[in-house]
Design a protein that fits this description.
Blueprint lengths: L5 E9 L4 H12 L3 E8 L5 E9 L5 H9 L4 E7 L4 E12 L2 H13 L3 E5 L3 E8 L1 H11 L4 E6 L3 E4 L4 H9 L1
Antiparallel strand pairs: 1-3, 1-4, 2-3, 5-7, 5-8, 5-9, 6-7
């Protein structure tokens, strides 16, 4: 699922019924490929934040933002540079884990700072959160053991905090 060429958009919308359907419908009508989509209310209950990762080849950024701004419930659109944003995603997976490989899987989950959520006789359900690349890596490493179920939330992202001006001020004092 590695996607080196994508636009990452943070779209602030009114928290009303049907807004997500209108946003997703716009992308579908225009043939824009959504790589990831996540939505939840913000700190202000009047608004929700939709984080959308869009395939850059299918959607020129200027065209995407112009189309989004035409939607009446869109309040603000921010493009987030993937290198200047904090991105996270959640992965839940049920992995085949018979006695012979259970220890290896538990060690792997531990190395990736994941959690074992549920234990069965021959399967484990695990949870990991982190940057999408990290989740891609563990997913690839778990595949040979057998993944019977997998769910990922989609990305959420915020701009990285710029501490450079504060650091310069502290150095000059």
């Amino acid at each position: 699922m590695r996607d080196a060429s994508h636009h990452l958009l943070s779209v602030l919308v009114e928290n009303k019924a049907g807004v997500l359907a209108r946003v997703a419908g716009l992308f579908a009508r225009r043939g824009f490929n959504i790589i990831s989509l996540a939505v939840a209310p913000t700190e202000d209950e009047r608004f929700s934040r939709i984080t959308i990762a869009v395939d850059a080849d299918s959607a020129p950024l200027e065209q995407v933002t112009k189309q989004l701004f035409k939607l009446i419930n869109v309040v603000k659109i921010t493009e987030l540079d993937p290198q200047a944003a904090v991105e996270r995603e959640l992965l839940l997976a049920t992995v085949d884990a018979p006695g012979t490989t259970r220890g290896q899987i538990i060690e792997l989950v531990d190395v990736f700072e994941g959690k074992i959520l549920n234990v069965g006789h021959d399967r484990l359900t695990i949870s990991l959160e982190g940057h999408p690349d990290k989740l891609d890596d563990i997913e690839e490493l778990l595949r040979p053991y057998g993944i019977s179920e997998l769910a990922r939330t989609g990305r959420v992202a915020l701009p990285r905090i710029d501490n450079s001006s504060r650091l310069r001020a502290a150095r000059s004092a």
